[in-house]
Amino acid sequence: MARIRQLPESLANKIAAGEVVQRPESIVKELVENSLDAGATSIAVAVRAAGKALVMVADNGGGMDEEDARISFNRHATSKIAAAEDLDRILTLGFRGEALAAIASVAQVELRTRRAEDELGTLVRVENGMVLEVGRTACERGTTILVRNLFFSVPARRKFLKSNATEFKHIVETMQRFALCRPDVSFTLSDDDTLVLNAPAGTMEDRIRSLYNAEFMNGLIPFDAVGDGVRVHGYIGRPNFARRSRGDQFLFLNGRSITSRLLSHAVYLGYEHLTDAGSYPPYILFIDIDPERVDVNVHPTKQEVKFDDESSIYDLLLEGTRRALAAHNLTPSMTMPSNTSGGESAESVLAALRFALPGYDRPETLPTRPPSSTPPSTERGAGYDRPAPQQRSAGGLIGRDTLAQLFGGGQGAEVPEENVGGGGGLAGSGETIEQEVRPVGQGAESPEAERHGIWQVHNKYILSQIRSGVMIVDQHVAHERILYERALATMKQAMPMSQQLLFPLDLKLSPTDFALVREIAPQLASLGFDIALDRGTDRVTVMGVPNDVRPGQEGAILNELLDQYRDYQQVGATDQQDLVAASFACRASIKAGDRLSEPEMLNLIEQLFATSMPYVCPHGRPIVIRIDLAELDRRFGRTS
Ligand code: ADP
Ligand code: MG
């Protein structure tokens, strides 16, 4: 007698159901997909005991006639594809004809459905894969399916279900994905008679606001990138808006929620180091692509997909993210949530600064420190380029009106040109207009600083008056941003600038540090490190360091860079060049607590606004905070 036998269909279905129906959430997902495929514009989901006792999905879609309703529960019964070629252009969410069969084999199902043209609807009851009843019923147009007692006939599976709270969380997440993907459809979700989600149809922005809130919407910037036969659009979060988990990252492909480590990585990389360790910017991105170029039939739950040309979509996401961030380089706003105006563009702040800061309109090229051979010294606060006096004198002049207007002095200072040369900078303290201007002192506490409207507070922040209010700059992160961009630029050059040390430093490293130095030696060299390695002893000789290394820091910078590199690596960053640049910038920059002179402050701000992203540091922290006069007035209850 043959030992191999054909399994009865009901048993085969039960086995297959394991792939499709894992938990109550799977039922919600499959049924809502069917409703969307049926063209529903309104979908109501209700569950009891987190879906373990009941899942009900009611839609106002096309419905089925009696014949279709009966066979819809057969395995491989589908109206969505007919021939093999159809698999190449799938535009529906379902196509495998498995869901209803699978669900009906592990639960008790009741289906009511009516097409618009039929007077009476159809009722079908199925249990354990067996059709128990087919009959006529009066019902609304569309389809309502009730699924009771999931896994009632498979106790082993039932045992594996998690707590109601956990199972319900999965359902909410799935509903949230549908709701984000289809703002044109209205969704409700209730749990044991409590309405948990209520999303009326509307625009994408309406939908985001109703699922999250207005503040979340304000934290997003639009994304649009078009490639060869592909368009990606949606929103990505501002870097400083990053969350502690990936929960708010969504990718939709042709209207289907997908997961893709590769594509997520592309977006992640697009942020460079704009986000902090362990934080994840939210994004909601829709990839629209010719269906022939993707295979959604990789897995029964269709969460994973295969592209014919993955790298071009990867590049599109990466570039698109970079561009979106650069184009919407907004000031972190101090305004209240009620104020929807958000930040202001870099351009406009820059324009305001041109007026507000003496010497702002100086040539683009900034002085760099000449390669020095200084042995370690203890000088502080000289880490970035001090403006040379001559350069200062080339600066823009501030007219009477702007001075008065910006710095509130009201004296109407006329600025005689001859007074500006030599000592550099602008200052005013004389009693007559002609004597208003004289060279500025180097000391940060010079009273002239007040006239310029720029102060260092707590050796940490630079406070400055700008036309529209005040601006506060975090000196450390500002410098970090400057050095980061400069490091990346240096690395692109054939001959990196390096300061040779008069006394080369001999360092003994740990084996892991030594291994890391070896690994990133090319990047270190391109940044300006001149290092010799001795493998046998784990010793390195540092003969030169990048120009931006501050005096006194030459010995420590390499070790600090390695530590920082590891920190960043733990977040999952992989681009070595970028990692080296960011690590260097973080550790070589001036710190909170470093005292700055006025020219140093002015220079720092000037260089900051010459960077591509003056508002966010490489870790995603804000660099600049602006408080508008209007906001101050509002807080003080001033009406004018
Ligand atoms: P698939 O969605 O892969 O086609 P299903 O088992 O989920 O397979 O559904 C089988 C068929 O039942 C569908 O192809 C569709 O014709 C019909 N159907 C299921 N749900 C609905 C619904 N809510 N409204 C109208 N037709 C439906
Ligand atoms: Mg389906």
Describe it.
The protein is built from 21 helices and 22 strands. It is of the alpha+beta class and 640 residues long. It has three domains: 9-200, Histidine kinase-like ATPase, C-terminal domain (Heat Shock Protein 90); 212-327, Ribosomal Protein S5, domain 2 (2-Layer Sandwich); 389-640, formyl-coa transferase, domain 3 (2-Layer Sandwich). The strands form five sheets. The protein has an eight-stranded mixed beta sheet with strand order 5-4-3-6-2-1-7-8. A five-stranded mixed beta sheet has the order 9-10-13-11-12. Strand 3 and strand 4 (121-127) form a beta hairpin. Helix 2 runs parallel beside helix 6 (164-181). The protein starts with 8 loop residues before the first helix and ends in a 5-residue tail after the last helix. Bound molecules: adenosine-5'-diphosphate (ADP) and magnesium ion (MG). The site of adenosine-5'-diphosphate has 23 residues, from helix 2 and helix 4.
Tally of distinct domains: 3
Which band does the percent of strand residues land in?
A: 15-25%
The CATH homologous superfamily of the largest domain is named MutL, C-terminal domain, dimerisation subdomain
| Mean pLDDT across every amino acid position | 77
Name the helicity range.
25-40%
Bound heterogens, unique: adenosine-5'-diphosphate, magnesium ion
Q: How many helical stretches?
A: 21
CATH class of the largest domain: Alpha Beta
Which residues form runs of ≥5 with pLDDT under 50?
A: 330-450
Instruction: Assign an overall shape.
Output: elongated
Reading side by side through the largest sheet, how are the strands ordered? 5-4-3-6-2-1-7-8
Total strands: the figure is 22
Class from secondary-structure proportions:
alpha+beta
CATH T-level fold name of the largest domain: formyl-coa transferase, domain 3
